Backbone:
């Protein structure tokens, strides 16, 4: 987490969407996005475990898993392989981008909730903040790829507008669980998406 | 039977019609029925909110009414609550009332109805209840939305120890639902097929982030969903403890309390409890920002009395404490200032300080604490603004710490903080004489007295001791007393006194003055008394000494001893009536001998040695074994002795010795006992009980036997260290006899040899005198005198006394012809007998070569000097002649090498041929005359022997070859025969 190389990598990956003055090649964009996704993948399970550890039973129970818990505001990462494989690059990137857009907003919500529930847990709050920052970085990278491929950018939706603010504490704990879980799933999927692209557009 | 049924039905119908009639009458009389009853729910507080109006109320009139409310759950018949609500009702007023449900409202349908009655004095006639309103049904379940499982109540805030009912609604009755509280399954009561309620009694506080309660719906092992709630359990708010207020300046009241447990909960469910200060006389209120203290500004000077209420409050509870006080009774003074000391001298000082003035005419009570010398004194004093206290009975030259605190004297509330300062009293003269003792060394003509004194204790020194004055006064002769001043750290001095009585006074001095004097008198004969030394046994704690009481006037006793290993004299003063004491000090070491001397001090201050004691605080085993010598070793005994062993310098009193003896014989000798050594081996042991008996005769031994012995001393603590045994072997019985014979014999032989050596000249002359030299005889001079050249010494040949036989040695001959510088023939000789045929190296005027005969009596060394054995041969000499000479046949005689050495004594160059008579002894000392007094022989060849001829004169004539064959040498053996 505190690896200086990772921060450097993150910064460079954040740069392309911000500065159009220095266009980089498609393969390079894909490679950078892929590297970031791979790096994110290493830390997703740690984020989930840290999150669960702070929520009490049943979340903190060993081997806790509730796949039936889903969020309507967050698209599920799981998909049939054939469906996924037959998607074209644009659709695949578009889905991932939509998901990470929703994830950045949800991660912010979860962080806010946790700072209220667990104010004395700086580790969890820091990990949630870092995850959100990385999701934003990956979004930027994918935008660069889509621009390079000449694909239309999906419209930014305020997915959280659909979330009710009157959720109970338990529901918010569940929401945090689903968000951190889906963040991992979507990161795994992004690695696969980008690996396909990388193979297709070699450097 | 049928008649009875008809009768009963008729009765009930009549009764029913009667009741209906009565109701109608009442309604007509009191038409104040609650109407428009509406029930709403508040799911946060799990409460039903009722609102209704009352019809037919008189306009602008308030009436007191009572409403009875019924609440049923699930079905109307299941009434769970009935209660009355009294209120005044105005015309057209909408009435509100709430009811909190224990069971979450989402889990069951509730029904509410009410009736009312007039309870107003303006309607004195008897009142009747109105009719019940119709049941109002409240159901929240329909608004739950989609989902298979719901758990209620959500995020409920309760106090620790309270009872909570939770419930779940399961949409699918096929699902099996299990609920858990912090991982532990809980069991509830099924209200209907979809709803189950759980009564949690006395919920515990687990953490401030709340307690998770969740339910899991499953079919078989397949989880269908999970749903839960967080129950926020708050700690019970405690009443603030130790609430009090005080003022330091009559401007601010400082109130403090102990807040107890913080009841804050996570997720902003409940903040920390708040504290509010309320003063009832002024009616003012202040919300405190700190959890344990609050400042209250005093605004009115006139207010003397305060009634404070401290209110602690959280979402669930409110607690308060109250105090009522007079402001002047709660004065907490600021600590005094300007603490000073005036007129400080050796034993007293004046302490001054100031108190912060509160109000006019205030009297303060002040407390002074004086710390010094490990003690503490306390004084109380009443002061106005300036405090002063006279501190007396102080110790001189001592640092003190004095501190003061004050309080309101009229209404004591609390002491102020301390204010303190250090001060040191001045010095005073030492109050006690130093403890002095002496040691005396008597020498011829004088005594060397060493005075020792102990430094004064701080209590008696009264300051820093700078020096000691020693005044020596002769008591026998009137003379001036001698004063010595010794700088302070010293604790002894040495005096050399003649054989008179002296009085010595010692005083300790500091900057103020001198101490009383300590007096000691040295008598003429201080320690001449011979006193027996007594042995004592010490213990770990020390030595217990006792002595006989001394007749006469004794002012005390002194016991002295030396500390080891520092060798410092120590002493102890004992009172005159005491005849025993215990000397105990940590300095005593085990294994060290301490000598104690007990003196009696007479009234004249003269010390008289009474007794001597010696002992060990703990005796140890000897540290070393004696070096044992074996004496008088005979075939049957030997003596062991260890005279050098010192019994005094041992770590214990030597009580004797153990002699261990090992021998091959199993039996021990009569005086020995069997003993087993530490290594398990057996040996014989003999015990000597007298430490001064340092020898042992071991007898009854066998000749030619080996014995091993080991001698070790012993003390009360044990034997000396283990060491190796020394081996002794007894000789056989005859060897001594042999020695007795052999030694005199050897002595005799030696004596003879010495005598022989001393008388060697005499023996020589007696046994083998020198052969007379013909040349030295007087006859020769007589011949010269007559100058008859033909006269010569009588030739042996002329006499022909004997035939000369040439003996050819079978071992071989070595011949060298040096004229050609080449060895022609070489024959090894077993004996170094040589005959050389040598050519001359010069041109000789004389004829032919000459032959060198080597005499047996002469030394070999001569041949090496280059002339002996060289036959002077003319270069013109015919080879045949050389050949003749070198032929083996011409080798006449081999010579013993040893006998050639004497030739070396003939000077080189003087002669080329040296022939010395065989009769002339080289030791005769006549050889020097040989070259100077040459005798010319007629023929070299003719000269047979007895003549030494110079080379140039002794040249043979070449023609007389035949004479060469006659050159002979006698065999040495023959020669001496």
Residues:
């Amino acid at each position: 987490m505190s690896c200086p190389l990772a921060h450097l990598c993150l910064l460079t990956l954040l740069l392309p969407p911000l500065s159009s003055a220095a266009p980089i090649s498609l393969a390079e964009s894909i490679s950078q996005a892929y590297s970031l996704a791979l790096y994110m993948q290493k830390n997703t399970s740690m984020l989930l475990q840290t999150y669960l550890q702070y929520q009490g039973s049943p979340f903190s129970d060993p081997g806790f898993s509730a796949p039936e818990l889903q969020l309507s505001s967050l698209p599920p990462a799981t998909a049939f392989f054939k469906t996924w494989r037959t998607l074209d690059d644009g659709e695949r990137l578009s889905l991932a981008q939509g998901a990470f857009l929703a994830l950045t907003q949800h991660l912010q919500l979860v962080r806010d909730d946790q700072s209220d529930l667990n104010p004395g847990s700086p580790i969890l709050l820091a990990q949630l903040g870092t995850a959100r920052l990385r999701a934003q970085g990956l979004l930027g990278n994918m935008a660069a790829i889509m621009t390079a491929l000449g694909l239309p950018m999906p419209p930014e939706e305020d997915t959280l507008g659909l979330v009710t603010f009157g959720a109970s504490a338990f529901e918010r704990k569940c929401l945090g669980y689903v968000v951190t879980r889906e963040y991992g799933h979507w990161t795994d999927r992004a690695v696969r998406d980008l690996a396909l692209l990388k193979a297709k557009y070699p450097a | 039977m049928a008649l009875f049924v008809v009768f009963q039905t008729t009765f009930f119908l009549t009764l029913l019609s009667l009741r209906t009639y009565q109701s109608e009458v009442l309604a007509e009389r009191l038409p104040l029925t609650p109407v428009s009853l509406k029930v709403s729910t508040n799911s946060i507080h799990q409460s039903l909110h009722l609102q209704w109006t009352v019809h037919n109320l008189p306009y602008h009139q308030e009436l007191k009414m009572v409403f009875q409310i019924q609440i049923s759950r699930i079905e109307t018949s299941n009434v769970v609550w009935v209660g009355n609500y009294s209120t005044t009702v105005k015309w057209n007023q909408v009435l509100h009332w709430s009811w909190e449900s224990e069971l979450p409202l989402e889990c069951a349908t509730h029904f509410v109805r009410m009736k009312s009655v007039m309870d107003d004095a303006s309607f004195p006639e008897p009142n009747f209840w109105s009719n019940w309103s119709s049941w109002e049904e409240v159901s929240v379940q329909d608004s739950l939305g989609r989902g298979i499982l719901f758990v209620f109540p959500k995020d409920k805030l309760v106090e620790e120890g309270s009872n909570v009912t939770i419930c779940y609604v399961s949409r699918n009755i096929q699902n099996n639902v299990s609920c858990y509280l912090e991982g532990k399954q809980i069991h509830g009561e099924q209200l209907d097929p979809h709803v189950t309620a759980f009564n949690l009694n006395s919920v515990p506080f687990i953490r401030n982030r709340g307690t998770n309660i969740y339910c899991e719906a499953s079919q078989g092992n397949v989880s269908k969903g999970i749903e839960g709630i967080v129950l926020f359990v708050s700690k019970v708010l405690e009443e603030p403890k130790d609430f009090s207020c005080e003022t330091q300046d009559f401007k601010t009241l400082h109130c403090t309390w102990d807040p107890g447990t913080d009841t804050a909960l996570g997720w902003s469910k409940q903040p920390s409890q708040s504290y509010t200060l309320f003063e009832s006389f002024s009616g003012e209120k202040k919300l405190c920002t700190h959890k344990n203290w609050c400042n209250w500004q005093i605004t009115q000077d006139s207010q003397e009395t305060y009634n404070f209420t401290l209110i602690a409050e959280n979402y669930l509870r409110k607690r308060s404490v109250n105090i009522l006080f007079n402001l002047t009774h709660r004065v907490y003074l600021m600590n005094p200032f300007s603490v000073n000391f005036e007129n400080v001298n050796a034993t007293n000082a004046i302490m001054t300080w100031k108190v912060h003035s509160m109000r006019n005419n205030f009297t303060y009570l002040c407390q002074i604490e004086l710390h010094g010398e490990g003690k503490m004194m306390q004084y109380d004093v009443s002061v106005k603004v300036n405090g002063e206290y006279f501190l007396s009975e102080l110790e001189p030259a001592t640092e003190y710490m004095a501190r003061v605190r004050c309080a309101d004297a009229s209404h004591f509330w609390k002491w102020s903080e301390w204010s303190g300062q250090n001060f040191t009293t001045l010095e005073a003269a030492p109050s006690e004489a130093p403890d002095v003792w002496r040691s005396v060394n008597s020498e011829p003509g004088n005594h060397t007295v060493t005075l020792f004194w102990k430094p004064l204790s701080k209590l008696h020194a009264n300051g820093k001791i700078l020096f000691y004055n020693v005044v020596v006064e002769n008591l026998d002769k009137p003379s001036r007393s001698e004063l010595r001043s010794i700088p302070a750290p010293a604790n002894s001095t040495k005096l050399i006194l003649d054989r008179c009585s002296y009085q010595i006074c010692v005083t300790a001095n500091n900057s103020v003055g001198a101490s009383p004097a300590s007096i000691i008198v040295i008598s003429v004969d201080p320690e001449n008394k011979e006193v027996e030394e007594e042995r004592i046994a010490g213990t770990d704690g020390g030595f217990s000494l006792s002595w006989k009481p001394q007749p006469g006037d004794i002012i005390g006793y002194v016991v002295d001893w030396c500390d080891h290993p520092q060798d410092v004299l120590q002493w102890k003063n004992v009172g005159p009536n005491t005849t025993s004491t215990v000397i105990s000090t940590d300095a005593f070491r085990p294994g060290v001998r301490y000598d104690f001397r007990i003196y009696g001090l007479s009234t004249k201050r003269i010390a008289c040695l009474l007794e001597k004691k010696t002992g060990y605080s703990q005796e140890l085993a000897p540290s070393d074994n004696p070096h044992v010598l074996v004496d008088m070793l005979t075939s049957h005994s030997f003596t062991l002795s260890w005279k050098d062993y010192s019994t005094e310098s041992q770590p214990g009193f030597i009580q004797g010795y153990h002699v261990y003896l090992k021998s091959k014989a199993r039996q021990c000798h009569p005086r020995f006992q069997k003993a087993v050594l530490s290594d398990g081996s057996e040996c014989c042991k003999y015990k000597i009980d007298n430490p001064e008996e340092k020898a042992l005769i071991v007898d009854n031994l066998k000749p030619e036997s080996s014995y091993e012995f080991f001698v070790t001393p012993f003390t009360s603590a044990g034997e000396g260290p283990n060491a190796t045994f020394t081996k002794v072997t007894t000789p056989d019985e005859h060897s001594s006899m042999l020695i007795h014979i052999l030694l005199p014999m050897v002595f005799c032989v030696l004596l003879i040899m010495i005598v022989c050596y001393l008388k060697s000249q005499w023996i020589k002359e007696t046994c083998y005198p020198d052969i007379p030299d013909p040349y030295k005889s007087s006859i020769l001079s007589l011949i010269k005198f007559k100058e008859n050249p033909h006269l010569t010494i009588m030739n042996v040949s002329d006499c022909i006394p004997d035939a000369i036989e040439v003996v050819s040695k079978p071992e071989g001959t070595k011949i060298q012809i040096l004229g050609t510088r080449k060895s022609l023939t070489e024959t090894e000789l077993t004996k170094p007998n040589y005959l050389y045929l040598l050519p001359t190296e010069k041109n000789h005027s004389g004829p032919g070569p000459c032959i060198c005969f080597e005499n047996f009596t002469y030394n070999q060394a001569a041949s090496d000097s280059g002339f002996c054995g060289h036959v002077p041969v003319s270069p013109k000499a015919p080879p045949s002649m050389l050949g003749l000479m070198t032929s083996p046949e011409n080798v006449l005689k081999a010579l013993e090498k040893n006998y050639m050495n004497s030739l070396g004594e003939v000077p080189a160059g003087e002669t080329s041929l040296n022939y010395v008579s065989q009769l002339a002894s080289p030791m005769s000392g006549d050889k020097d005359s040989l070259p100077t007094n040459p005798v010319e022989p007629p023929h070299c060849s003719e000269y047979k022997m007895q003549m030494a001829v110079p080379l140039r004169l002794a040249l043979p004539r070449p023609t007389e070859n035949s004479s060469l064959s006659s050159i002979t040498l006698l065999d040495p053996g023959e020669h001496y025969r």
